[in-house]
Design goal:
Thiol Ester Dehydrase, Chain A; homotrimer
Chain lengths: 352, 352, 352
């Protein structure tokens, strides 16, 4: 960590070198308190993460923590070192959930710089990092690449040799499922889980409007983002943001992802586990007062090697603001339909 | 559950038949996290549900979960199947708390349709259900009747034979107290509990102004209602509600009940357990920005059979918005006094 | 407790006598749920209170609860009896954290009246109390003096003999550290804790701008204050406060203290434990919508007797509203600089 005197101004583009490993503060024990807050913030209803008796009956040793809560906590740790001076969060790739997290586990994170490229303006550069979240036993629970555009401290600094990592367009189905124990399909009660639709009921090309909408408040998204110990200033400081580009605080992009995931229960109730995120794009910002809607397309179905208990669906979920999704707004010839704020490409597991 | 393709539009009047049993999603493990959120949302101060050392000293095996938190969670489970297409929530009856709930218990719910009656408009019908909440051992923790006015899918559908259940005006005191262990009266410390007033200090006819007021915010009531996994759209979706009858999101009626109960501590500090709800009426809607006040009338006092540890008070609590209750606003000749939003008739237990 | 009929109007100046001991309701079990909410409300990142694995590695038997959460809970208990009729909260002194609090501990509080002095107006008086928070084993966890200006019930009541306690200007370093186990300095990982700066890196006279700002919402501060079961009406009741001096709800002063402490992580990341509060002054009120900033001055460094593991820093932290702190706004010739809302003098411990 670069420290100027006692406080940290965050790292600038010049502070990163390819191959560098960065350890992040602060270790974070995930508890039943976090789980309750996650429910209160999103209204999520997936049975495995809501009912211990259900989770244990289908094969989990205990009720696991929601995958996206794990993602947000690990992501939050990386912010002070990676993206405090970021101009834009450009993308995610190759994100895999590799071990289930249970209440009581302590998460911590490191990042390796895997690419650097100055932008043509000479004022910023793109930093590629692979961030890894681990538990108190050192086991990897989450691994992902993200790239952000970061300010240079000094525009006159020389550009580093550009290194752009070769990233997969999607996580292959062969490596999915490491965080999911063997599921006892016969014990999967579809009344309790909320839908009779299992993996084999979904087909590639199918589109699902998740129907419901959820309005976001300033207090909501700030509580969420503080819960994740994410320190990005744009989410919290109205005094400064009021004078900035939007005149308002921005909602953390991960908050949108969790809202979309919670809304997707209506249509994907048995998609109990996010196994991987292939890529994601925050197409436009979300502000408090806006109402979020979502729809999903199944883009691929896949079996997992040597597993007959669960199958994988590859989904592209779009979230919108103040626009219901009955007409499936998404990409257009020259960008995205009005109102689209998120396009997320990911794998979920479902009982077969 | 009626499923149109993958998403559920909720049940319409035609989907219900008398005698039908409906299993509800999603099982929900109640934790210390939920208890903390419940305190943060209402500021409740009843000693048995706040201090484990107090609860254990007076006779509970552990600190129990607030009765109304149990009610809201069970109620929330029924919403997607019973009241997603409801025009109005008409009433509750015969609600009994039958077993204490402790952190770690997993709650799930079923409903039996016990009555159906088409309304004179031919556009809606009244559905009566008995809903039952159970724990992970299958024990009933809560049982209640509610009736709601539900839209017909097709106005041309024939009316079913009307069946209107015979409902008790009140729960009889003889069946109260199943969820309450024997209380050691000598161990009940009235300094810690907040009041020297025990059961015998209250008389039928007594009216108590609870004095304090609590302002509701959008973030508050939405966090509460999501915590209960209650999916009723009117509480969450400003985009749609902004175009609707009120132009705003409605606060969940149960949120009002919990606010009134928390306010009632000032005057009823030793009323540690809600044993039954005889009936309730949401007289007018509550919106964010309004301040809730409450007052109660003791309408009956009762001994419990074979118990000398606790006695029962029957209360009618009124909640108001933006109207202090020093003048006890309630029923008038042609309805309710201005500002009244809730009339709740229930039984509480107090140490003798 | 003075009770008028069934509800309590709070105590007036005439109800207090020097030497009187007041037991407070309601005992409160602190849980992992409270810890999660505390994180969500402030975004605090000190490693000892965030990561159980970190806390245990450096010498705690388990992850302790944040010191200020303990303070707020104990303080909240005293409000109904001490300050419900307070006109002003005048000061704190001699506040010591004497035992660590862990999830599962039940806190309760008593206060002793140690001073009384009628004010010259004859309408109010100053009440000095020493309040003590204890756990379920009766061990003192927190002890502090505060004084408040309280209304008289009747202006004609005679003034009591004035008794003004002799209060220390600061807690002496010799008594600090009772709530802190021996810390294994070699196990203190400064990457995980967020800063390489240990006790010996700080000097008296040093000033640190904590840089970041946090905007407060009505829902935030009310959830916090309800979580602490603090019943002071000015925080909750817009109906009444809307007609009052400010036209708005006031944010609980302790909320400002916790915000300032959380912001101080940036510059004081290893200041893991608040050991004592020497004094504090709420210079001006805070309202929802305002953004809080903070800066600190190190006013003294001290070794602890017989301890080589940790050292103490005496800090004076100032919080402001809508004013960044790069120019260190504080006391001026005739008061405080514009925007200053808090001046807090306290001791923190850091690993040596």
């Amino acid at each position: 960590m670069t420290t100027t005197d006692k406080t940290t101004p965050g790292n600038f583009f010049e502070d990163f070198t390819v191959g560098q490993t960065i350890g992040h503060a602060t270790p974070r024990t995930v508890t039943e308190g976090d789980v309750a807050l996650y429910t209160a913030l999103y209204g999520t209803r997936f049975a495995v993460q809501s009912g211990a008796a259900f989770a244990e009956q289908v094969g989990y040793p205990r009720m696991p923590v929601d995958d996206l809560l794990v993602f947000h906590i690990v992501f939050g740790k990386t912010v002070p070192d990676i993206s405090l001076n970021a101009v834009a969060n450009l993308g995610y790739a190759d994100c895999r959930f590799e071990a289930a997290v249970y209440p009581g586990d302590t998460l911590w994170a490191t990042s390796e710089v895997i690419g650097l490229k100055e932008t043509s303006s000479g004022k910023t550069g793109i930093v590629y990092v692979r961030s890894t979240g681990r538990n108190q036993r050192g086991e990897t629970v989450l691994d992902y690449v993200r790239w952000v555009m970061v300010r240079k401290r000094d525009e006159a600094s020389p550009a580093p040799d550009p290194v752009v990592p070769d990233l997969p367009g999607a996580v292959g189905p062969a490596v999915l499922g490491a965080a999911c124990p063997t599921i006892d399909r016969g014990q999967w009660d579809t009344t309790l889980s909320g839908s009779p639709m299992r993996w084999s009921d979904y087909q590639a090309g199918e589109r699902i409007d998740h129907v419901d909408g959820m309005t976001v408040e300033e207090a909501d998204h700030m509580m969420a983002t503080r819960l994740y110990q994410n320190t990005a200033r744009v989410h919290f400081n109205q005094f400064t943001e009021g004078k900035g580009r939007f005149g308002r605080r921005l909602v953390y992009g991960g908050h949108v992802i969790s809202l979309a995931r919670a809304l997707s229960f209506n249509g994907l109730a048995n998609a109990f586990h996010v196994a991987a995120i292939n890529g994601g794009r925050h197409v436009a910002p979300l502000f408090a007062g806006d109402t979020v809607f979502a729809w999903s397309e199944v883009t691929e179905t896949a079996e997992l090697p040597d597993r007959t208990d669960v199958g994988a669906l590859r989904l592209v979920t779009h979230a919108t603001r103040d626009r219901p999704c009955a007409d499936f707004p998404g990409r257009t010839e020259d960008g995205y339909a009005d109102g689209v704020i998120l396009e997320l490409d990911y794998w979920v597991l479902m009982p077969r």
